[in-house]
Write the structure tokens for this entry.
Amino acid sequence: MTVAQWDGRSLAADLAYVKRVTGLSARRGVLAPLRTVTIAALGGVGTLTHYNYDAGVVVRAQVSGGLEATTVDFGELAAAVKAAGRGVVELERDGDRLVVAGPDGRSSVAVFAKGEDVPVMPTVGGTAVLVADTAVFATAVGAVAPAAGDDVTLPMLTGVHIDADDAGVVSLASTDRFRLAATELATAAPVTLEAPVLVPVKVLAAAAARVAKRDGSVSVYVDGGHARISGPDSDVVVRLIDAQFPRWRNLLPGAGDDRMRARIAAPDLARRLKKLSVFSVRITMAADSVRVEAGDLETGQVSTTFDVAAHEVDDRVVGVVAGYNPEYLASLLACAPGEVELTWSPTAPTSRPMTIEFDGVRHLLMPVRLPGAEPGAAAA
């Protein structure tokens, strides 16, 4: 028998990452083989592997010792690692049990008896369609992820659309019909993406959040109906969404379009909006500030009012009153590290989308109807 030694804190974090990427937390009641994880250690590298037909992940870590590939129930292993503590955790195969021991305790987990029933993760190889710096990749995904939807009956709105133009410039976009986010991704190698792909936002966002904390690069591979996102210490395989994404470029204002503009500090407004628990807020533009009013706007009873500084305010936008969903607005503003430029249509500022722009990122947000105002059209 051989023993593998893991850092307990890192192992617990890696198990949480597997859960986040693959949706294991929401898969209770499914077949036992789809609730398993395989753990192994060889040559100083420990791996955790899980695949459930929709998404899969392989996480790598530096370890000591060795452990033959052992498949166990994910929840049971996570509980055993938690009970073992955050110091050095030893894993040892003992017949049909996996023993997990650490500074806080020792327990064992049953080895999954029907290993042949565990689905095998597909190989997604070939040449990477794009390669990007980890921080650049994470920033781009983080900028568009909040605008994606979560309605499974509209699968085309639950992903991030990745495309490349004839010049090899990669674009990322997402929308839930009320929000739209788009940005370009700086790549470190020529792009070979032959057709757009639609990647489930939850999987892509989880992978991006992990690589953001690591140096190196991210490579994306596409093969048939799957994509593989390969980072410094993990590989994620996910089934692509087979649906038609909206023609989002037609929704963005053109470069030469007349727009009313103002600049604000996004983090301050996002922080204040997150504290509100109302469906809509009323925003009034002034020459040097944005006034936000929240409450029962249908009856005119305002319970919360605050001002946020603004500058470079177009004279035409002074006095404009528009309504927005505070949760949606906060989610978009929170992506910006500092100032953003807000723009509105000069002819219909209260019924057409407001844009939020910063560092090459463009967000669109549909207004909500305020009492006495004309209803607007959807963004997508």
